[in-house]
Amino acid sequence: MKRNLRCMALLLAIILLLLPTLLFSQDVLTREKGKLNIYFLDLGVDEFATDKSGDATILIAPEGEVMLIDSGHPQCGSQVIEALNKLGVDHIDYFVASHPHIDHIGAFPQIAEAFSIGKVYRSSIVYNSSHQANFLHSIQEKNLDAEILSEGDSFSFGSAIEIKIYNPSEPINYPKNYPDNCTSFINNQSLAMRLSYGKSSAWFSGDLYLVQERELVLKYGDELQSDVIKANHHGGKTSNSLRWIKTIQPEIVVAMHDTLDSMSVYTNYKKYGAEYHLTYLNGTVRVVMDDKKNYTVTDTTQSWMN
User: Fold this and answer.
1) What is the C-alpha separation between 152 and 164, in angstroms, rounded?
2) Which residues is 193 bridged to in the sheet?
3) 27-299 topology per CATH
């Protein structure tokens, strides 16, 4: 009898844990035409992977142009391709590589094999890794138009959206011991870009660390303010300083990670009025915006975070 009660209690606990997913799971891979749709993809790697799943964000402009910011870990290629297919994408107008780490460009060769790509944007950073070599080889093999971006550059995404680049500056000054112990250096060379769509705005800056956040805040101040942002470095405490949060003043924050990296980062964003969404708990997150600062956020799964 006691054994049966224990089994029933365990079963009940499992049901309660799964209940939010069972009741509130939504299909977010749909388009709302005439608006900017942003999809922060929930990616996953197996237990033997050498790194996290990383970032891949799909943006669809009001007129239908498609941008993919980063591609995630090599194991995530099929997941990104599946999401693009479900959205009816057959051509990627722009691919943006924030920086050359495996969890950001690792799946690019698979993406380039599956879709035609109009243009590739990247920084000029030199990094001798197999994943960077594969990335550059794919660009050359597919004869893709590639352009280097740096601070002060800008480009259009459709007719209604302008994108300005705030990082990295040129020339890139490499430390003497480069590439030894270079993780933070490469992260701080991440492309930082602000999307302006009428009165609405969104911000992406890869894996910027605290030191480079500080540099941008000192240099640009309130100009950085953006309503929708991807949390730097997967929402970790290596990034997302209080000064950064108070300067950028986001309404909606999405962290892309396989776990909750920092409770203090979550708390600080919430303290200063932002909604906080985490792909680990919320699944793929879709943000739809018009050009008048109206935003709709839809999570695949609801969680205690929001």
Assistant:
1) 7
2) 165, 204
3) Metallo-beta-lactamase; Chain A (3.60.15)
Across-strand partners of 155? 163
Structure tokens at 76: 């995530």
116 beta partners: 91
Instruction: Using pLDDT thresholds of 50, 70 and 90, give the confidence band for residue 6.
Output: low
Give the burial class of 239: count Cβ atoms within 10 A of its Cβ; 0-12 exposed, 13-18 middle, 19 or more buried.
buried
CB environment 183-221: b (16+ within 10 A), e (fewer): eebbbbbbbbbbbbbeebbbbbbbbbbbebbeebbeebe
Q: What strand order describes the sheet that includes 161-167? A: 154-157, 161-167, 192-197, 200-204, 228-230, 252-255, 275-278
* Amino acid residing at 286: R
pLDDT digits (tens, 9 = 90+) for 214-241: 999 999 999 999 999 999 999 999 999 9
* Residue 189: strand, helix, or coil: coil
Domain ranges across the chain: 27-299
CA distance linking residue 258 with residue 260, whole number of Å: 7
Residues 6+ apart with CB under 8 A from 138: 108, 109, 112, 113, 144
